[in-house]
Write a structure and sequence with these properties.
The protein is an alpha/beta fold. The chain is built from 18 helices and 14 strands. The protein folds into 3 domains: 211 residues, Rossmann fold; 97 residues, Rossmann fold, CATH 3.40.50.1100; 80 residues, Alpha-Beta Plaits. The strands form 3 sheets. A 6-stranded mixed sheet has the order 1-2-10-7-8-9. Helix 3 runs parallel beside helix 5, helix 8 packs across helix 10 and helix 9 crosses helix 10.
């Protein structure tokens, strides 16, 4: 089954795409979140695209696109340019279909995405800092090696495949009032805006970008595109909006909101803690926007696409640790002591008596303004929270020790 050729896909194209991927790409869970609804003051519906086999929504568009290729194009081989999720999806589906694949990735693509792409048999080439750099080399290599380009977002079949998410969400929740969608090059939001607005014209479709890469918003405003160098939402770190996606977004998307890095980090942590689900930075921007702009969504039924879950473990570990710091469960406590035998043991005993765990201990004798025979001891502690930390500090102060609490990140 092949899609008809349109400058932009229609609802019928998206419905055909849904038939194409049925049984091949997962119809992922779409669930109400009671806790996030209470936090945000809205009725929150989550679409778990992070649970696709390759960890993102990209599997949908990749499959539709590859199945649209002719026998000659499949034999020719393909090339794709991706910050990771499109790469994995294309490599996986191409392997299943017996198509030779080359993937161009930015230099700093998370390792988990690189290794999974390679595991599907693709040849991986690194180039540049951003997806835009990879796309330039990809076009050059496509000509040199006579490969068929599978673009990450600026393609009719790709757009139609991504739009199948809205079909599934509205089938389960036809009364959705808002759809929050991550925006990079625009393939995901373009496809879903077509589907959602055609089925339910009154629904509000809202895109979300990181402040460091606001390219789509700038393009819509007719402003020069100015982006940063990096973001934890690397999956939407795109400097060049699609030529096909931009007019669709101009016509159908109600607005685009921007979120900061710390807001994305907080959303990743919240999804892990509340929903027990791992989501990468780009996949968490919808929740970040819901919480940041909660007033405009209050009391409404809001669908959020968790677009991917391919996050490096070191990044996830850092997010968890920083969260523990902010909540007072991981703390750095400085204690001023007289540097004589037995004092360290006394302080350690006091801390242990409160039920806290000592993770690290550092003596500081040289780099201090304290008098001779005095020292600073820095403890890294695991506690039950800020109230527990206050109990520890009061106990030490009652025994005559001066204490000072600092966050790990200070």
């Amino acid at each position: 089954m092949k899609l008809a050729t349109f400058k932009s896909p229609s609802l019928e194209d998206i419905r055909q795409a849904a038939q194409i991927i049925r049984g091949e790409a997962s119809d992922t869970p779409c669930r109400y979140s009671r806790q996030l609804s209470e936090i945000a003051g809205a009725n929150v519906i989550l679409k778990f695209e992070n649970l696709q086999f390759t960890g993102s929504f990209k599997e949908r568009g990749a499959l539709v696109k590859l199945l649209s290729l002719t026998a000659a194009e499949r034999k020719q081989g393909i090339i794709a340019m991706s910050a990771g999720n499109h790469a994995q999806a294309v490599a996986y589906q191409a392997q299943r279909l017996g198509i030779s694949t080359v993937i161009i990735m930015p230099d700093f693509t998370p390792n988990v995405k690189v290794e999974r792409t390679r595991s599907f048999g693709a040849e991986v080439v690194f180039h540049g800092e951003t997806l835009d750099d990879a796309i330039i080399l990809g076009r050059q290599m496509a000509q040199e090696r006579n490969l068929h380009i599978v673009h990450p977002y600026d393609d009719q079949q790709i757009i139609a495949g991504q739009g199948t998410i809205a079909l599934e969400m509205l089938a389960m929740h036809p009364d959705l009032e808002v759809l929050l969608v991550p925006v990079g090059g625009g393939g995901l939001i373009a496809g879903n805006a077509i589907a959602a607005k055609t089925i339910q014209p009154q629904i509000q479709v809202v895109g979300v970008q990181t402040k460091r890469f606001p390219s789509m918003l700038q393009a819509l405003r007719g402003e020069p595109i100015v982006c940063g160098r990096s973001t934890m939402a690397e999956g939407i770190a795109v400097k060049t909006p699609g030529k096909l996606t931009l007019p669709i977004i101009q016509e159908l998307v109600d607005e685009i909101l921007l979120v900061d890095e710390d807001e994305i980090e907080s959303a990743v942590r919240l999804l892990l803690e509340v929903e027990k689900t791992v989501v990468e930075g780009a996949g968490a921007v919808g929740l970040a926007a819901l919480i940041k702009y909660s007033d405009r969504f209050a009391g409404r039924k809001v669908g959020i696409i968790l677009s991917g879950g391919n996050i490096d473990l070191p990044i996830l570990s850092t997010i968890v640790q920083r969260s523990m710091v902010r909540s007072g469960r991981l703390v750095r406590l400085e204690v001023e002591i007289r540097d004589v035998p037995g004092v360290l043991a006394d302080i350690a005993r006091c801390i242990g008596d409160t039920g806290a765990n000592i993770v690290e201990v550092h003596h500081q004798r040289a780099f201090t303004s304290l008098p001779l025979q005095f020292a600073d001891i820095e403890f890294v502690l695991m506690t039950r929270g800020l109230e527990h930390l206050q109990q520890i500090m009061e106990m030490l102060q009652n025994k005559g020790y001066k204490t000072h609490w600092r966050a790990i990140a200070e």
